[in-house]
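Below is how a single chain appears once it has passed through the pipeline. First comes the sequence as given, then the structure the pipeline wrote out for it. We keep one example in the README because the format questions we get most often are answered faster by looking than by reading.
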Amino acid sequence: MGFGRGKVILLGEHAVVHGYPAIAVGIERGVHAEAAPAKRDLLRLEPWDLALEPDPDGREPLERAFSAILGEYEDRPPLEVRATVELPAGAGLGCSAAIGVAVLDAIDEALGRKRPRAELGDAALVWEEVFHGDPSGVDNAMSAVGGVALFVRGMPLRPIHSNKPLCLVVGYSGESSSTKEMVTSVRRQLESDPERVRNTFAAIETLVHNATHAIGAGDLIALGQLLDLNHTLLASLMLCTTKLDAMCRAAREAGALGAKITGAGGGGCMFALAPKRSEAERIREALGSDAFVAEVSA
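Resulting structure:
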């Protein structure tokens, strides 16, 4: 059974596209997939009830991404891949990367191929490029490897260890978001006002470095404060929405140590840091029925 994790970026999204560091975590909610020889290549996705053939010029990104993945394999039989998706699409949780990693993992298994998880994540970048144009690579890397890690574009993941797990409560705004459009928006701001945006990126980098130390020391209070500051900086890049802001406030009022948007912004998800697992349920209730708890060992 192939598997790709969802991911949450703790700090550093958007800046990471431009070479700055980010901290991300892999969660245990994601995508499961199986592959088997068939009469023709086919990708089935549940619960969306989709059945797609690979097509490098297809209208659907999934058709083009599936074609790109299959192009990595030589001398293989036609394959039918069945994937079950447990993540909302376009929500900042790395859904597309999780599908890509799960599909690759399932095909590897069907063909008897074994490779390290990090290599699997690298291979999934061709899938991500179809969806996001110029992805940082953090989504596919974390989907394959999991845990908590510092990511810098073009460099191997650097795991971050702590004696305390991170208990996150993830809430979905119900607003769809396009990573490609949000990344383009920030790039345009960078071109039109480079000093302001680069200062924002530098401030985010400082938060990331401080958060690395906070996680290593198990200082959840400091980490929560850094999350709030990162949320404010992302909002200054016009990446937040009224709904996401309201959800972050509701989480803090329910006892969260900090809360912020995650991923591209402009919709999608936010998350909150709970003091401990026993207090996470109250925060989850404050965020609505689509919210869920994700505990990550650092």
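The chain is about 45% helix and 25% strand.

See the next section for the split statistics.
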